Every structure is written in structure tokens, then in C-alpha cells.
Amino acid sequence: MAKFQCVVKILILSSLLGCSSVQQRLSPDIFYKRDMLIEVNGHKGDGTLVVPLNPNYTIKVTAKGDLDLFTITTCHREISLEDAWNKGIFSDKRKLEFVFEEGDLEISKYCPIHLTGFEKVKGRHSWAIIDISNEENGERAHIRCNGIDHAMEGVSICQSKEGLLQEIAFPLPVQVMIPSGCARMETEDNLKFRYKISPKECVYVFMSEFKTVHRLTTIGYESILVRGD
Fold this sequence. Notes:
Blueprint: H1 2-17, E1 37-40, E2 43-46, E3 48-52, E4 57-62, E5 69-73, E6 78-82, E7 95-100, H2 104-107, E8 113-118, E9 126-133, E10 140-145, E11 148-153, E12 155-161, E13 165-169, E14 174-177, E15 192-196, E16 201-208, E17 213-221
Parallel strand pairs: 3-9, 12-17
Antiparallel strand pairs: 1-2, 1-4, 4-7, 5-6, 5-8, 8-9, 10-11, 10-13, 13-15, 14-16, 16-17
């Protein structure tokens, strides 16, 4: 009997350790955490990143799985690349470097860059979002997001587990435009706003009496993919 129990335990442990080789099935009803490692013109981020406006962007990607399919999506276009990794003597199927140049339609409005990496066999997919900051009319804000405090000029992104409490504060009173279906902002003085992050992507716009603007994108994930090696 003891030997049988030992065999059962070994089988269970083996199945758990072998999960990384089994393709993960994504639910279309779940918003997953953005955790693709990205570097843009020397600025680094883990799933999310805000970078200064530039004529073009050198983007380096480290995905969580092989880049069998890689997509770049903006408000204007989608670029799809199969077998997109950097090929060479020291090739790494999780890594890619490319130069991206925004077109007129992308520069003229809110138009973040969404990156997605898909893997065929193990299903170790990953995502990232890059927003572009033009600081000319940017309102400075202090962000408290997922336990980290930082100051941002004009544009910010906050990613956290959906339903958790976050905060954004300004030096002068502002009014906020709340997108439909997204969490409300609670404030007593129009300086400090608290909110519970919504389970999706939401874009809030704050405007002061001097017409300076701050754009906050919240990423509320419902689940994190466990990918293994």
C-alpha cells in the first residue's frame, strides 16, 4: 500500500512539473496581465511603458515564449510577423528588435502601441502596451500604483490586479473625464483621486483650468499566465 501511494505521489508531482510543456488555453473572457519585457529608446518597462515623443522608436522585446507570431497594433494599423525572433548565430526565439515609426494618423491622436507575442506549442503568450508622451501641455501628476510611487508628466499607465485601490494626485485642481464602463474616481478636493482599477483597459483624461492635460491609462488584469521555462 505504501509503495502504491508513493507511485501516485510521483505521478501527481510529474504532472505538475510537466505543465509548462502543455499548451495553455486562454479564456476570451479574461483580461491577462501585460508582462512582456520591453525597451524603447533606452527606456525599460515590464508590460507597460511611457516614452517621450520621438521621430522613431527602437523597440527591443523579450517575450515570455517563442515569437511564432508577433503583432504590433495601433489605432491605425496592425503589423503581423511570423517567426519574428532575431535570427543569427546567437538567436533567441523570445527576443526581437525593430524600429517603429509613427504615421500621421497615429501622431495626431491618442494611439498607444500594443505588442503581442504568440507561441504555437506551449502557448506562452505575452503582451505589452507603450504610450507616447508629449509634454508640451502635460499636467504633472503623482501616481500611486500597485505599491509604487512615481511622478509623471502628461501621460501615465497604472497596471494592477482588478479591484485594487489606486491613487493619482495633482498640484492644482483638475476635472476628470471618465470613460463608459470604467471605475469612478473618488475625490474631495479635485486634487487627489482614488479609484478601484477596472478589469480591462481604461483611459482617463484630467484637465486643469489652464487647459493642461494628463492622460492616465489603467490596466486591470484578472489573471496571470504561468508559463514555466
